[in-house]
Input
Amino acid sequence: MTAEEENVFDVYRDQVDRPLSRLFREYGTDELHWLVLGMVANVVARVASLVPPVVLGVAVDAVFAGDGAYTLPLLPDAWLPTESAAQFRFSAALIVGSFLTTAVFTWVYGVAANNFAHRVMHAVRTDSFEKMQRLDMTFFDDKQTGEVMSVLNNDASNLEVFLDNALQNSARLGVMILGIAAVLFYYNHELALVTLTAVPLMVLFTLWFMRAVEPRYVEQRSVVGDLNTALENALSGVELVKTSNTEDHETDRVANASYDYFRQTMSILRLNYLYRPGMEFLAGLAFAVTFVVGGVWLSAGPPGPFTSTLTVGTFITFVFLTQQFVAPLAEVSNIVDQYENAKASSERVFGLMDVPVRIADDEDAVDLGEVAGRVAYDDVSFGYTETPLEDPADADEYVVDGVSFEAEPGETVALVGPTGAGKSTLLKLLLRLYDVTEGEIRVDGHDIRDVTLESLRSSVGYVSQDTYLFDGTIAENIRYGRFAGVDHDVESEELRERVIEAAKAAEAHAFIDALPEGYDTRIGERGVKLSGGQRQRIAIARTVLQDPAILVLDEATSAVDTETEMLIQRSLDRLSEERTTFAIAHRLSTIRDADTILVMEDGAVVERGTHEDLIDADGLYAKLWGVQAGEIEGLPEEFVEKARERHVDRGYGNDD
Output
């Protein structure tokens, strides 16, 4: 991927330094007590597991063979029994006690390690989601949903596995190697050198593996994001897929993404196929060499340059400890595997967290307080650039270019123009979904960049053409975002009444009340169980409940039939009463009574005035009006007359 192709997420991900160390610094500190408890319990359990081979070797020599004194490391001789029978019972008690100690502290280690891992990952996942929520819309314009989901889900889970397994297994491995090496050197340093010869080779082999596999894990995590995106797109657009008869096409897209993931996974596994058996071979070789050299030592005396004495009990201790030595060394491959996977994932997690939040409250931001609704756009320009353009000749990069107008409290300003003229973007700037590149927008005299986002957005109601409803009940969707302190599981009677009143104002109560479970009807993901017009009216009811001083209607009736549009338009008329209203409309008849109509083209306002003024000017608006009026006038007279009668009979009034 070239530098030009990298998006902002990739740039910040590449700049993450020592991601796993950062994970511990920023998130491990608060849960350090769990980590310390787990580490201590792990050390005690591993040390206890070394006791049986040592006791067994001593017992074989002193109790059964009578070929040595009954002495144990770290225990004073005065504490040890002198009679053979007592020594046997003491040995058995030590062995049973060590197994019990190992079991108890392994349980403590498991509880502590899991608490540490899951608490840290809860904090990481929550912070990642919270950061994602605060990022401005430019980030989401550039990123695919599947890739963001991959960070929040797959990458966070990989870190959890590392903290839960690899970290503690690394500690266990370190304790086992150091503990076993200490015991072996204590009993016979010469044979210990033979046993530990494989360790340097295993270290070098591991370093090679880590350098070779790291870039492959980085690529694998990126491919997972692509696969998630392909799956999310196909599932979210399943209706379009079926109606377009493109199941095979979507299957091919998912298959291609899945095959890319397969290829990257296999490139990692091919290295693992070499590394894991290699580590097991070296560990097994250490055991085999110890057994052969020790066996020769016992049967024929010290071989080669060796000169020390080796007893049967010591040999048994070496054999058992070397066997314990083999298993943790063979697990190094799993630890490295989880480490590299976690490293790649943590880079992506912190890459997301490091993306700057460009739209946020200033330190001196003020609360708007009670909003009258006076709005002014002052020479506003916007483009997907971080800084104003230096060369005026580059103005075509602006989506909105030099727009100025004012709206007094209670006035309605309508925006019309061809698709892509910048109408929706212009109004999204009012909500600070994007920040202006040049100029300023003022609400009641305040530059919106100088006020808190919460007070700004709570004073602006937004109804778009793309209505989004959450999986839940109708009542939950209507009150979404309002009454933050209310327990939604125990809805108050007052809140219920306000929800119903909002639905009535939005012309939604009738169809809701007719549903089997009324306001408690679950509507499915994205409200799939409702029609487009029903979803739109619930969105309007949600805005009614918000009771904003400023209202933004972004083609709120564009996706419904004419009859439903009449219902929605009537609810919108009620909603816009005594509010400052901005309306984008594709049907000009719905906004002809607006106080001011702005006609936009290529991001600029090319005409402005009332409906009558613009008709008299005979410009772009007049042409658009003529096209739409012509469509109506071209209908058969009897059809138009019946439609008007139906309109009146339904109680919509006798206007046109």
